[in-house]
């Protein structure tokens, strides 16, 4: 899921400093800028006719909530550092040129009757029902350290009050505190990451094509490593293999023989969340494709262009994509007024997706107490849809009503394995190969949020099939 980790961590101290310097001026300017001052308690606003519902985040949870929400019932405000929704299941394809980046994004503004703030939520005050927001950075191509300062130097925080709040801020990439990962590896959590990876793959080939390099130097530059053999890492490796064996083979016929792809995992298998027969099918397909699966490995460090792993030692690479699961976002870590798990990883809600009256959390940043569910788009969007029904008042006025209890429907898992093959593991059926691939493609075309992308996704698949991928670097 961000990326670069897509969200940055600001130290509380710094926020306080900025706040101390600028609070007066900010509040004054907000008052001038907005018809209703954002920091004024909603209850005291003169023209208050609707409750203000603030949604934090513009990912799967937030967008499925917005889709089902009766937006005429509330004054809806969305706060996110991303002005778009990212269609995460298609990011591996966008990173390897099978799809254009545009097809994996939906703009937040415009499609809904909402007010959008392009900002980070820095602080949640449940007692005063206010949020502290910091204007977000413009998009960055590739950050050195995604946890470092990520705001305009002159940005100033402001406050926003709410009547109802939905927190759906997702999660960060987990690195297990492995040295050098944030500085030297690439993440695949957001569209900006996909763009950076795509750029880097092509850069590796361009560099390796210079005549003054030795074969060993070429092999190092064209060694592509994926750490983490879950669905995201495996799908990326498979898509990369497709790119190498088709368009890059055509464009760089003399050097493509030096290219290699490896998946490195600490466990004894890949795609462990799938049925064992499907995981084996994937392993066999990867073996046929020449994707090197390295299991039971312990990554010690990621240096610049060098993976240090036990028991192999040092392995040089041109691109290393790190995909080993998720961890808590900084907002979750520093918000202590809300119940969390022992590991400080996510908010804990009740069965109604709620902490206290009027405050809810959905998606990767939250779990229901005692009912652990996987951190997937499926769960996030089901929770968002359920919450929309609750907030629309379709389930009656009683906040404790049984029908307001969230029930997860397991729709199964899918993973694309490249070259027209996939695996599908659903409670009703299992499929592999071409049939699974058709199901995978149909499902993700259909799941695109807009008709524009529902048309663009198959359009680009067809165009790329006919004419090859567009591999211009920009
Ligand atoms: C490459 C990839 C492929 C995946 N494939 C699948 C798949 O095939 N099937 C599946 O079910 N799941 C898949 N997932 C997992 C799925 O994407 C996540 O579970 C899902 O995105 C979680 O939704 P969310 O709304 O909780 O968070 P996200 O979708 O991550 O959205 C979080 C939002 O919060 C915003 N935000 C962050 N911090 C703040 C803040 N402080 N203030 C305000 N806003 C903030 C972010 O900018 C973002 O808009 C995939 C994930 C990745 C990365």
From TrEMBL:
Gene Ontology cellular component annotations, sorted alphabetically: mitochondrion
Family assignment from sequence similarity: Belongs to the NADH dehydrogenase family.
Top-rank taxon, per record: Eukaryota
Segments forming domain External alternative NADH-ubiquinone oxidoreductase-like C-terminal: 412-470
GO molecular function, one term: NADH dehydrogenase activity
Domain FAD/NAD(P)-binding: 52-384
Residues that span the membrane, as ranges: none
Stated name of the protein: FAD/NAD-binding domain-containing protein
Keywords: FAD, Flavoprotein, NAD, Oxidoreductase
InterPro entries attached to this UniProt entry: FAD/NAD-bd_sf, FAD/NAD-binding_dom, NDH-2, NDH2-like_C
